[in-house]
Amino acid sequence: METEIEVKFYGGFAVAAGAESARIQFDGDDLGGLLAEIRTRWPKVGELLDGPAKGTAVLVLNGRALEPMDLSIKLLPGDTLSIMPFVAGG
User: Fold this and answer.
1) Residues of the domain holding 50
2) Is residue 90 part of a domain?
3) Confidence of residue 90 (pLDDT cuts 50, 70, 90)
4) Count of domains forming the chain
5) Using a CB cutoff of 8 Å and minimum separation of 24, what contacts does 60-67 make?
């Protein structure tokens, strides 16, 4: 099943992707499949997700933070996934 999702990139993820947003069609219907497609299309984004800073990304699906991240979450056409760096303040 092919699904089209909007992905928004923020901070270093936007720099790594070379774009602030993109519409992605991918084979599958879950978060794991979408992240695999993102890693394939934008290897630098994959490096940020999987490299030394692994675990510092915040994924937000349709305005709700995915904590804990469940790769089996089903996606629907038209969903929006935002990928942003974790920000701490004081």
Assistant:
1) 2-85
2) no
3) low
4) 1
5) 60/84, 61/31, 66/31
